[in-house]
Design brief:
Distance between the termini: 22 Å
Largest sheet: none
Number of domains: 1
Order of helices and strands: HHHHHHHHHHHHHH
Length: about 325
């Protein structure tokens, strides 16, 4: 059954990549020109993402290690991490692709409860760090740029959204969120019967998973803050991808250029995540880059260039992740 599901996920991911290639809203000549313009900075961007995937894998390994021994190599865990992110970016409602795949890959090694709790904890930490990244961007904007009435309203709404998200995750870390999540599904038309049967049949397993989630925050504070720091620093480092491309357009190495990169990525990621149901977030990412760069006084051409290079990088690692799904690996 697991093999069949993995094959289905692989085909869905591959189909999404094909759709992305066919709907690339630039000519091949423009794409080639931009790639040539990026030059060695494109290599730097790809190497940066290798480092980011290493950090993601280390976060997951720290979380997994809190519930027992980790009987698989770092490289194998990184392989699953890259493939999981590839499915997340290629499939509609990303977490419905990558997270089940990671659970299926780890279950034969550590059991279904540890696999499920570690994957959920990693996904929670990844999103939790993103909320703090957005908070950082709000503070940066207020500190560095003039704020008119319209922008003040937008920043206030973004701040309320982040505060609500942080509160929600802190509650989840204290008591777990699996049982509560299944109960919420029990109120959704069409899922009520399945959710209630699942909650009754797997009540003990769900309770244990929630206990493992809560234990990371209550009993393993060092691992909790270490994994949060890794994910938060990773989000800040991701801003270097934008900074590299701003340097190509004549920007200087400075804290202001880095701050602009943080703001561009923060606004774009927020905009794109609101369109998370779209495979590869087609259109959302490009629109986010165009709006964020124009808001900071940069040209539309800069936003288009950044979106194209980021799309190429995402497509590259999506293909790598899907290829890794078909590679067999030992411990």
């Amino acid at each position: 059954m697991n093999t069949r599901l993995k094959n289905i996920l692989f085909v869905v991911g591959l189909a999404s990549v094909v759709v992305m290639l066919l709907t690339f809203d630039v000519s091949w000549q423009t794409l080639w020109t931009d790639l040539c313009h990026a030059g060695y900075w494109l290599v730097a961007i790809l190497l940066l993402w290798v480092v980011l995937y290493v950090m993601n894998t280390l976060t997951w390994r720290i979380i997994l290690g809190e519930t027992g021994p980790v009987p698989l190599s770092f490289l194998r865990l990184m392989k699953v991490t890259v493939s999981g992110f590839a499915l997340n970016s290629a499939t509609p409602i990303g977490l419905l692709g990558g997270e089940p795949y990671k659970v299926m890959e780890l279950t034969p090694v550590v059991g279904v409860q540890r696999a499920t709790s570690s994957v959920l904890l990693f996904a929670m930490m990844h999103i939790f760090a993103h909320f703090w990244y957005w908070v950082t961007a709000i503070v940066l904007y207020v500190a560095l740029f003039p704020v008119n009435v319209g922008m003040a309203i937008l920043l206030a709404l973004a701040g309320v959204f982040c505060a609500a998200g942080i509160y929600f995750f802190l509650r989840g870390y204290r008591s777990g969120m699996v049982v509560g999540g299944i109960r919420m599904l029990g109120h959704v038309p069409g899922l009520r019967g399945w959710a209630r049967r699942f909650a009754e049949e797997r009540a003990e397993d769900l309770r244990k998973i929630d206990c493992q989630i809560a234990e990371l925050h209550s009993q393993s504070r060092r691992s909790f803050y270490a994994s949060l720091a890794l994910e938060y620093v990773g989000r800040m480092m991701q801003s270097l991808e934008i900074m590299f491309m701003l340097l190509l357009f004549g920007a200087e190495w400075s804290w202001m250029t880095f701050a602009q990169s943080v703001l561009i990525l923060a606004f774009t990621s927020l905009f794109a995540n609101l369109l998370g149901f779209v495979p590869l977030q087609l259109g959302g990412r490009e629109g986010g880059f165009a709006l964020s760069t124009s808001q900071l006084g940069l040209s539309g051409g800069t936003g288009l260039f950044i979106s194209i290079i980021c799309r190429v990088r995402e497509l590259f690692f999506t293909c790598i992740g899907l290829a890794l799904m078909k590679m067999r690996s030992d411990k």
